[in-house]
């Protein structure tokens, strides 16, 4: 039942409306009355009505003063003015205070009923929006771990946007990193007989079990740490340390934890892993440098185990960010970005040409790594690499690579076959659809946007569009549109040129209270507070 409160200094008007309003038909109930604005405020706080019907000219406190105070106190109910004064100034002020309707006395029963029916429909719509908003919040909470995981991966691999680094740290909820030093431990699952012929599904199970063991160990020995799963058989741990920990103590403890991880993975999973450790960085933006050092350490171990100690003739010079290269290439493959894949390969090959100590062993090592990454990345996109190259003697091909040009040609040949496959082309078409949806959200955020209209334009079903968008971005299209609108609203508020109701309309929300509520849940403050604090 919708709760209705009536405020009027005329006792006969109060009694007349109480008797005349068809409460049952409207599914409403009378919850109280008052005869001036001050009394009305008290009764409203006590009864919390959904609808307030009020006169304007009353003793002690008039109706407009009462409404203004209600709005300041964030009263979210609907307000209908019923007044014997039809002055334009009153009406304009009432409009500014976002009242639902302004009726002049005398009013007929039919007029009053029509207004109440409309207001109740608006309340029902608001209630539905509230439920939808809760669903949005639930989904945002559900997707938050995914977003956090991807952000961590971008920091570890060096693919994060450095232009907005400080803001991204704040939004990630990890601002305490600024008071810590950091070091990265690289983890490599080595290719033994036990895993040489396992399916990619079983490989994923191994990775899952490995991650569980590592996380349990870290919880006991170094709680301030983050495990980040990278491409295929690689993972990384970011260790955060307080300024009071000496360099010697930190290195000793990291080595001890590394030994424990190797021991327990071997004991419980019968898997062999290698550990590499990067140097300690005082700035979180340099975490990716520690990552590259950790994987350079792993590379040295791999080459040494293969019996070619001359491979790393120039030592540190070999570290040209292979981890970042792997990550960018893996993402390009997953999302079928053929042009981006070529560009990433060309850029890395150019870096190799600029290095003075690239040996055949290192190039062959890169090819082996990339082949594993191809297999894993394509598997996540529903494509089996071995089925694309059924008769390809990969090990023999890699063994023949001795120059950077051989390496480039081998990579280009593989990408060409992958790019011509039907499955990858379908993924590419889906990526085009996702790009269109993203562009649509950014260019049409002030309009009513729904997947039904987009499905007609793209000739794909509504549910299918939502699925491919979520797969590509990690969030539903509805959530993405909300994020675009909130970010635009924030920018407009910071400009200080528009009223809140104007901004609400500019970003696609006709209902100002709903916009304000959504903004507060998104940024933790009301739109009106934007000038008092920095988002």
Describe the protein in words.
The structure is a single chain. Helix 9 crosses helix 10 (247-269) and helix 13 runs antiparallel to helix 17 (404-420). This protein has 23 helices and 9 strands. The chain has 3 domains: 2-129, Response regulator (Rossmann fold, 3-Layer(aba) Sandwich); 158-305, 2-Layer Sandwich (Alpha-Beta Plaits); 426-529, Homeodomain-like (Arc Repressor Mutant, subunit A), CATH 1.10.10.60. 61% of the residues lie in helices and 10% in strands. Strands 2-1-3-4-5 form a 5-stranded parallel sheet, with helices on both faces. A 4-stranded antiparallel sheet has the order 7-8-6-9, with helices on both faces. By secondary structure, it is α/β, with parallel strands linked by helices. The two termini are 39 Å apart.
Low-confidence stretches: 139-143, 307-319
Q: How far apart are the termini?
A: 39 Å
DSSP strand tally = 9
Q: What's the main sheet like?
A: 5 strands, parallel
Backbone CA Rg: 32 Å
Task: Give the helix/strand class.
Answer: alpha/beta
- Helix proportion: 55-70%
Compose a concise summary of this entry.
With 535 residues, this protein is of the alpha/beta class. It has helices spanning 11-20, 23-26, 37-47, 63-72, 88-96, 109-157, 165-172, 193-196, 200-221, 247-269, 287-305, 322-334, 338-353, 360-380, 385-388, 394-399, 404-420, 422-443, 451-458, 462-473, 477-495, 500-506, 512-523; strands at 2-7, 28-34, 51-54, 78-83, 101-104, 181-189, 225-229, 234-241, 273-277.
């Amino acid at each position: 039942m919708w709760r209705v409160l009536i405020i009027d200094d005329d006792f006969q008007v109060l009694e007349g409306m109480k008797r005349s309003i068809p409460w049952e038909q409207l599914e409403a109930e009378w919850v109280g009355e008052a005869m001036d604005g001050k009394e009305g405020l008290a009764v409203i706080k006590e009864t919390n009505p959904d609808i307030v019907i009020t006169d304007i000219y009353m003793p002690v406190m008039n109706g407009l003063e009462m409404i203004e105070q209600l709005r300041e106190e964030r009263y979210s109910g609907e307000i209908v003015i019923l007044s014997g004064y039809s002055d334009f100034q009153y009406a304009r002020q009432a409009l500014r205070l976002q009242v639902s309707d302004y009726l002049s006395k005398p009013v007929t029963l039919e007029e009053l009923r029509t207004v109440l029916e409309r207001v109740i429909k608006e309340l029902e719509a608001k209630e539905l929006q509230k439920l939808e908003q809760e669903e949005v919040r639930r989904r945002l909470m559900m997707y938050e771990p995914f977003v956090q995981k991807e952000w961590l991966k971008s920091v570890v691999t060096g693919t994060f946007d450095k232009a907005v680094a400080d803001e991204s740290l704040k939004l990630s909820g990890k601002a305490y990193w600024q008071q810590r030093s950091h070091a990265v431990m690289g983890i490599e699952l080595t290719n033994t007989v036990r895993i040489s012929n396992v399916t990619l599904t079983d490989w994923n199970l191994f990775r899952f079990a490995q991650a569980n063991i590592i996380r349990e160990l870290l919880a006991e020995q170094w709680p301030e740490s983050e495990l980040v799963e990278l491409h295929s058989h690689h993972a990384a741990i970011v260790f955060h340390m307080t300024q009071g920990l000496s360099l010697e103590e930190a290195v000793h403890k990291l080595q001890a934890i590394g030994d424990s991880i190797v021991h327990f993975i071997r004991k419980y999973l019968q898997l062999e892993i290698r550990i590499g450790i990067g140097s300690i960085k005082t700035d979180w933006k340099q975490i990716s440098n520690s990552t590259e050092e950790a994987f350079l350490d792993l590379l040295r171990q791999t080459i040494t185990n293969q019996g070619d100690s001359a491979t790393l003739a120039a030592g540190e010079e070999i570290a040209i960010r292979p981890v970042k290269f792997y990550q960018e290439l893996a993402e390009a493959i997953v999302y079928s970005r053929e042009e981006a894949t070529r560009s990433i390969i060309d850029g890395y090959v150019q870096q190799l040409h600029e290095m003075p100590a690239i040996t055949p062993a290192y190039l062959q090592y890169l090819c082996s790594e990339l082949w594993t990454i191809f297999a894993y990345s394509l598997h996540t996109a529903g494509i089996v690499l071995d089925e694309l190259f059924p008769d390809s003697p990969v090990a023999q091909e890699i063994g023949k690579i001795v120059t950077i040009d051989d390496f480039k040609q081998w990579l280009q040949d593989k990408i060409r076959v992958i790019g011509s496959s039907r499955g990858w082309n379908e993924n590419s078409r889906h990526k085009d659809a996702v790009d269109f949806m993203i562009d649509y959200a950014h260019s049409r955020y002030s309009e009513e946007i729904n997947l039904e209209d987009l499905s007609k334009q793209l000739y794909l079903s509504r549910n299918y569009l939502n699925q491919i968008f979520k797969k590509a971005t990690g969030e539903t299209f509805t959530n993405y549109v909300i994020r675009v609108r909130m970010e635009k609203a924030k920018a407009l508020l910071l400009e200080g040129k528009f009223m809140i109701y104007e901004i609400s309309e500019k970003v696609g929300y006709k209902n100002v209270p709903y916009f304000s509520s959504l903004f507060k849940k998104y940024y933790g403050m009301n739109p009106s507070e934007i000038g008092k604090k920095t988002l």
